[in-house]
Structures are given as C-alpha cells and as structure tokens.
Design goal:
Helix content: 25-40%
Protein name: Peroxiredoxin
CATH architecture: 3-Layer(aba) Sandwich
Organism: Sparassis crispa
GO molecular function: thioredoxin peroxidase activity
Shape: globular
CATH superfamily: Glutaredoxin
Family: Belongs to the peroxiredoxin family. Prx5 subfamily.
Strand content: 15-25%
CATH class: Alpha Beta
Oligomer: single chain
GO biological process, one term: cell redox homeostasis
CATH topology: Glutaredoxin
Number of helices: 7
Radius of gyration: 16 Å
Largest sheet: 5 strands, mixed
Number of domains: 1
Strand order of the largest sheet: 3-2-1-6-7
Length: 179
C-alpha cells in the first residue's frame, strides 16, 4: 500500500469519526439544520418543521445489491405505511442527487410517492451518528442501514442493521410491525 493510499484511508476514517455524533436514540430529534437534496443539485432543504409520522430509511448506497433489494419493499408497501398513519417515507443515502434520481427511476419506473433524499455531504446521517467508513467498498463514509420512525421531528423508533450489508431488521415488513 502506498503512503498516499494509506493517508487517504486514514483521512476517510477520521472524517467518518468527526462527522458522526453519538448514535441517535428514541426521544431525540432529527437534525433539522442539515442540508439535503431531492430534485436538484442546486436546491437544498432541511427537515425543519416536519410534521406527522414519517419513516426514514437510511441505506449505504444507491444501486448496491442489498439496498436495491430493500427499497422495493418500501415502494410496494407504501399504501400499508400510509394506512398506519405514515405521512412520508424518505430513502436517504450519502450519494449525490443525480445518482438518487437515477436509482429512483430504476426502482420505480412508473413513479412512487417515496422521497429519495441525497445527503451528499453526509451532514444529516452524520448528525444522527449513523455514518460508517465504507471506503474499501464504496469509496468513503456512507450511511449505516437504518430506519427511523418520527412523530414530527421527534424520533420514536431507531432500528439499525448490525451488519450494513445485510437486511434482517430494516426490511419494510419488520418496520410495518412497529407502527
């Protein structure tokens, strides 16, 4: 391993540590000042003023195998979520807005009301304490696989996959059972 490569890996690990606060817990609030994107690379927004019951699905990376297997479960069960009072389902990844839009188009060719959110700087996920160093596989810090259920901005449930590459506790059917 070259000195440059070693330095880059160390820097990625340090950035991940710096960006991640202590892992979020029920009763805390979602970060309302972190800037994210949905439709445009130049238009940002925050979750300040979020109301109602919402589900945030954090995934390590768009177009990856496990993530591409997980998200269709939420797309297919969207009406079941809304029947349980869920206002919005947000799929959040530390990817750019172009990648998230392309992934949404691939997974929901006919469209979906689920919102695909680009946390391109990792500010939202980092403030939740849910970043991990995925440098060896995905090139940098990424989101752990998690699901948050919120009532407004207050977090009522936190579910985090023990192994980010697996789907055991964050599948749509498991989350529906919590509502």
């Amino acid at each position: 391993m070259s000195l440059l490569s070693s330095t880059i890996q160390t820097a990625h690990a340090a950035v991940t540590s710096l960006l991640s606060a202590a892992e979020v817990k029920p009763g805390s609030t979602i970060p309302t000042s972190a800037l994210v994107k949905e439709d445009s690379s130049t238009e940002t927004f925050t979750f300040e003023g979020l109301t109602g019951k919402n589900v945030f699905v954090g995934v390590p990376g768009a177009f990856t195998g496990t993530c591409s297997a997980q998200v269709p479960g939420y797309i297919n069960a969207y009406e079941k979520f809304t029947a349980k009072g869920v206002r919005n389902v947000y799929v959040v990844a530390v990817n750019d807005v172009f990648v998230m839009k392309a992934w949404k188009a691939q997974l929901a060719n006919g469209g979906t009301p689920i919102k695909f959110i680009a946390d391109d700087e990792g500010a939202f996920v980092g403030a939740l304490g849910l970043l991990f160093d995925a440098s060896p596989l995905l090139g940098g810090p990424r989101s752990k696989r998690f699901v948050l259920i919120t009532e407004g901005t207050q977090i009522t449930h936190v579910v985090v996959e023990p192994v980010p590459s697996e789907l055991t506790v964050c599948a749509a059917d498991k989350i529906l059972a919590l509502l």
